[in-house]
Amino acid sequence: MARVHVESWRQTYRGLMPDSLLDDPGLLTARERFWTGALTDERYSSNRVAVAELDGAVAGIAMSGPASDADATWSWQLYVLYVDASHHGSGAGPALLDAVLDPHEATALWVADPNSRAQAFYRRRGFVPDGHTRTGSGVREVRYVRRAGTS
């Protein structure tokens, strides 16, 4: 899971995030700690996590949980959805999204901008930008929301 997370960041965010972050030799270890906590820490027990496996290898990862944005008017939030570039178009992305989100729950997510591929993916699944942006780790993000019952 950590490997897919790191490789997906490198594939997706090169040129958006600082190379020093993406090439940090400790990045994989940091993501391993992240996933260990996400999967074992009681604080995250209500989160939903899914893995897509193709040809015997982890091809994608997803995680959602209760909304954390201070101004949330939705109940659920997508925190992670990455599919290794070699598996784009395989159906892993939609399957992961469906595995961690209930279409009956209003949901939000943050997506890098620019990241036209991901933004189009979320728009096709009923998410629309709500006008909010933020910047972290040098990456500008746009918030997308989906009303309950939309998929």
From TrEMBL:
Keywords of the record: Transferase
Coiled-coil residue windows: none
Superkingdom: Bacteria
Domain (N-acetyltransferase): residue spans on this chain: 1-149
Pfam families listed in its UniProt record: Acetyltransf_1 (PF00583)
GO molecular function: acyltransferase activity, transferring groups other than amino-acyl groups
Name of the protein described by the UniProt record: Acetyltransferase (GNAT) family protein
